[in-house]
Write a structure and sequence with these properties.
This protein has a 4-stranded antiparallel sheet with strand order 3-4-5-16, with helices on one face. A 4-stranded antiparallel sheet has the order 10-15-14-13, sandwiched between helices. The protein is built from 10 helices and 16 strands. By secondary structure, it is α+β, with helices and mostly antiparallel strands. Helix 1 packs antiparallel against helix 2 and helix 1 packs across helix 4.
Length: 335
């Protein structure tokens, strides 16, 4: 029975080709693969095994570097949803400071309440609520509920200020890391084994100095070095090279060691669509362009459990509601 796999990039079902002309395979020479020194990322002290394949040096592990905001900056672990900054709760000290700053801000000429403008009296009320929070008699959530009823305009300004607060680098980093740790606890520590899943923009930013996110040309050079035939190198939106994925997989002869990390794949709905962990790998390239309908896409590489070939094709960067997430490998030229 033919096996099907949901193609993460364009949302269509694919099945392996069975025509004779596709069974070209790869002519692999083990001599093209040589040892290379480990790389230590000074930003977080992660150590990566590397491998020299022809005139390129590739990381032999998926990238595990998180940008400061983690998922808020496009770096996700498995089944993670980025935190909603509108729901971020500052500590009591920050909340009280924000409330008092708004209450005493001279740019506001009175706070319109249901019975008229009572700027001074409402300011006194805010000051009293701050004292009640300090004494533990009220919580920040209770105060926000009262403000929403008594003075919606003040409540909206407070909400906007809280969002500004949540968008500050320190708050973003704190919320992003908390979300990451919570998801990692549930998924059993995905990142250590598989690396982060990155949006395309995050992938470009996360690469360490001296390395690069491989272009489509970098991948073609790798594939050619591993013995992919010239007749298949340029083939697009198709599976290429019988045995190529086997060389690249964990334990494969190319020592590239690509784990089947899955993807948060493209589909029209806004909700996450994490698929194919332990069944397929998906790698971004730095090569992007716009389709005829002006939709931005990137060239990608993908494996599947039903065959030993590698897919070369395009992947949408997002669905206008969320970004697509794939794994990252880094490359540099051999000296």
């Amino acid at each position: 029975m033919k096996k099907y796999i949901l193609f993460a990039f364009m949302g269509v079902a694919l099945l392996p080709s069975c025509s004779d002309k596709d069974e070209l395979g790869v002519n692999f020479n083990p001599a093209v693969v040589q040892e290379a020194p480990d790389f230590v990322d000074a930003r977080d002290n992660n150590t990566y095994k590397t491998i020299r394949i022809g005139k390129q040096i590739w990381m032999a592990e998926n990238l595990r570097y998180a940008l400061p905001g983690y998922s808020l900056d496009g770096c996700f672990t498995w089944n993670e949803t980025a935190p909603d900054l509108k729901k971020v709760k500052p500590d009591d000290a920050a909340f009280k400071e924000l409330m008092l700053a708004i209450a005493h801000d001279p740019q506001y000429d009175g706070w319109p309440m249901k019975s008229g403008n009572f700027s001074f009296s409402f300011t006194l009320m805010i000051e009293d609520w701050v004292k009640q929070i300090e004494k533990g008699r009220l919580t920040a959530d209770q105060v926000r509920e009262m403000i929403a009823v008594l003075n919606p305009e003040f409540g909206q300004v407070l909400t906007d200020k809280l969002l500004d607060y949540a968008n500050q680098p320190e708050a973003r980093a704190r919320e992003g890391k908390a979300s990451f740790l919570k998801a990692e606890k549930v998924n059993g520590g995905y990142v250590e084994k598989y690396g982060f899943l990155y949006s395309h923009q995050a992938a470009l930013k996360a690469v360490p100095e001296g390395w690069r996110l491989p272009t489509d040309e970098d991948w073609k050079q790798l594939e050619r070095t591993l013995g992919l035939s010239d007749s298949e190198i340029e083939v697009s939106e198709a599976w290429r090279g019988e045995g190529l994925a086997t060389l690249l997989e964990q334990g494969g002869a190319a020592r590239f060691n690509a784990p089947k990390a899955g993807s948060n794949a493209y589909r029209k709905e806004a909700l996450p669509f994490y698929i194919n962990k332990d069944r397929a790998w998906y790698y971004w390239t730095a090569t992007t362009f716009n389709m005829q309908d002006s939709i931005p896409v990137a060239m990608v590489r993908m494996s599947a459990e039903f065959n030993t070939k590698v897919w070369r094709g395009t992947c949408r960067l997002d669905n206008a509601r969320r970004e697509v997430l794939n794994s990252v490998r880094c490359v540099k030229n051999a000296e």
